[in-house]
Design goal:
The structure is a single chain. The chain is an all-alpha fold. The chain is about 60% helix and about 0% strand. It is globular.
């Protein structure tokens, strides 16, 4: 029991650190401390993370219950959707760590998540549907089968599989988080020391961490048409943003300090001015930071779960 409790607290700290880095680092098109946008401020995302972390890592909850309760907690402090995609990705991870606290390698963690996905049921689908309808993400629209505004008749993984061809987060449920693991542990993103959760989750990131998070974000944005952009603006806009991200990713790989280039901030502001928010890529970045942060925490010296991993 002590091992499980310590693992859950470490995972919660890694989640809070990942959510903090999401806004502490400039990620073009997304809200950050340096640049608000889309009618939202970074403080809303920070408050959301703190509120959502409680039910997300509460023992004994199912995946669907975690998603629904965390969305409700988010609305209680932010009054809008700031993190639905993050919660959809992180809820199976949270339960996997609770059930398999010794999953200390990427392979073991992925197997643990797969075991969670394999047991999702119709109750998980019902709770997740209610959460999605409550969050009402931009461009949601309707679906011909298993629409979230109707009561589901299949389990959550099967429902996600129906949307997998048009939604990157849904595809992770179908494919065992394959894309997310490939992103989280690819070189040079996965570097020792870059995203460990310190005693204070909101410790400002150093230069190496900023560069790592930006590479991670650009790797996702440059690899896939962002699902959120596609829903709101169409494939053409999503591919234009993806191509731009590939260029910035190449510059980062060549050693360019992106925040030192005014054009990087200009790209950020231009996306926001056009209402273009690569929200799915941001969700992926947070979830990938949670995965990699968890694996690093498993290799770190034993800490006092009651103090060193408080994270807020």
């Amino acid at each position: 029991m002590a091992m499980r409790a310590e693992a859950i607290e470490r995972a919660r700290a890694c989640f809070l650190r990942a959510c903090w880095l999401d806004v502490a680092v400039r990620k073009p098109g997304n809200v950050s401390l340096a640049s608000p946008g889309h009618g939202m401020q970074a403080s809303m995302f920070i408050a959301s993370a703190r509120a959502a972390a409680v039910p997300l890592f509460e023992t004994g909850r199912s995946v669907g219950e975690r998603i629904e309760a965390a969305v409700e907690a988010t609305w209680g402090v932010a009054g809008c959707n700031t993190n639905l995609g993050i919660l959809l990705l992180c809820a199976p991870v949270a339960l996997a760590i609770e059930q398999h606290p010794a999953a200390a390698t990427p392979a073991a963690l992925r197997a643990a998540i797969e075991s969670v996905l394999a047991t999702l049921d119709i109750d998980d689908a019902s709770a997740a549907y209610r959460a999605i309808a409550r969050a009402h993400p931009g461009g949601l629209g309707s679906a011909a089968e298993q629409d979230v505004h109707d009561a589901p008749t299949i389990d959550l993984r099967a429902a996600m599989a129906l949307a997998a061809d048009r939604d990157l987060i849904a595809r992770q449920y179908r494919d065992g988080f394959a894309d997310l693991f490939a992103l989280a542990f690819q070189a040079p993103v996965f570097q020792p020391g870059c995203v460990e959760a310190p005693a204070d989750a909101e410790t400002p990131p150093d230069t190496a961490t900023v560069a790592s998070v930006q590479r991670l974000y650009l790797a996702c944005l440059g690899a896939f048409p962002d699902s959120h952009i596609v829903r709101k603006h169409g494939e053409r806009v999503a591919h234009t943003v993806m191509t731009a991200a590939q260029g910035w990713r190449e510059r980062a790989a060549a050693g360019t300090v992106l925040d030192a280039d005014p054009a990087f901030a200009e790209w950020d502001l231009s996306l926001k001015a056009a209402g273009v928010n690569p929200g799915t890529s941001a969700d992926f970045t947070v979830a990938a930071l949670l995965l990699s942060g968890w694996i690093r925490s498993c290799a770190a010296p034993t800490r006092d779960a009651a103090s060193a991993w408080h994270g807020s």
